[in-house]
Specification:
With 175 residues, the chain is α+β, with helices and mostly antiparallel strands. It is built from 3 helices and 9 strands, in the order αββαβββββββα.
């Protein structure tokens, strides 16, 4: 896998989790149905994906990823703004610290936009930029397709369910 593809996959994972990285009581859940998310990160080509969700799935992702974030992040400040939300965080993954600022605007019923800037401190892997910008534009398309269930994500013809990733994460923790 090329560095651009790897970084693109990381951006995708982050963008897919963005609505869930903040505790459920701090952000509203998205309207149930099929959401399209277009992500652009710096010089990389834009990536588009679709995600089928419902209230239960959004809340479940909040509670699943929330404990992991608490372990990794020493600071997370969420502020309600006139246009949406502003989030500042400081997290670490191994030897790398990451400071991020997110501005989220929109209504979580028809469309929202996330603009993120982040800075990786010392310990960032070679080839990974220290400063990153990411924009996610999400819009509600309507009901999920008949062959989709909440948690399904489709990108580039590949379909996976975010709940399966959670199960894999649980299996990896077992001795």
């Amino acid at each position: 896998m090329h560095r651009r593809e790897l970084l693109g996959a990381c951006v995708l994972a982050l963008a897919a989790a963005l609505p869930q990285v903040v505790a459920a009581e701090e952000l509203p859940t998205r309207k149930a149905g099929l959401w399209e998310m277009k992500m652009a990160a710096g010089p990389l080509p834009a990536v588009s994906m679709q995600q089928c969700t419902d209230e239960s799935t959004d809340r479940q992702m909040s509670t699943s990823f929330g404990p992991m974030q608490k372990d990794m992040c020493s600071r997370k400040d969420v502020q309600k703004t006139a246009a949406g939300y502003s989030i500042d965080s400081t997290c670490s993954a191994g030897p790398t610290s990451l400071t991020s600022h997110l501005d989220i605007t929109g209504d979580f019923q028809s469309a929202y936009t996330v603009k993120m800037t982040s800075h990786a401190g010392d310990g960032a892997p070679a080839g990974v930029p220290r400063d990153t910008t990411l924009t996610v534009e999400a819009k509600w398309l309507g009901p999920c397709k008949p062959d989709q269930k909440p948690g399904d994500m489709v990108m580039g013809g590949m379909k996976m369910n975010i709940k399966d990733l959670e199960a894999l994460r649980g299996m990896a923790k077992k001795p």
